[in-house]
Write a structure and sequence with these properties.
Blueprint (H helix, E strand, L loop, with lengths): L11 E6 L5 E6 L3 E8 L2 E8 H6 L7
Antiparallel strand pairs: 1-2, 3-4
Keywords: Ribonucleoprotein, Ribosomal protein
InterPro entries: Bacterial_rp_bL28, Ribosomal_bL28, Ribosomal_bL28/bL31-like_sf, Ribosomal_bL28_bact-type, Ribosomal_bL28_sf
Family: Belongs to the bacterial ribosomal protein bL28 family.
Length: 62
């Protein structure tokens, strides 16, 4: 799975519990996008989560 290159957000694991309380494993995946961004003055493709995109931590390449 892809991780956010800025904040390091990745998958997290837990337990799914049904109405009858049967338990099984599951995972939550982050909303990671592949975007072209300016990194150290050059255009580069990076994996960035939507929270980092919204907060302006990434300058998109034109």
């Amino acid at each position: 799975m892809a991780k956010c290159d800025l904040c390091g957000k990745g998958v997290s694991f837990g337990i799914k519990v049904s109405h009858s309380h049967r338990r099984s494993n599951r995972m939550w995946k982050p909303n990671v996008r592949k975007v072209k961004a300016v990194v150290n003055g050059t255009n580069k493709t990076v994996h960035v989560c939507s929270r980092c995109l919204r907060s302006g931590k990434v300058e998109r390449a034109v």
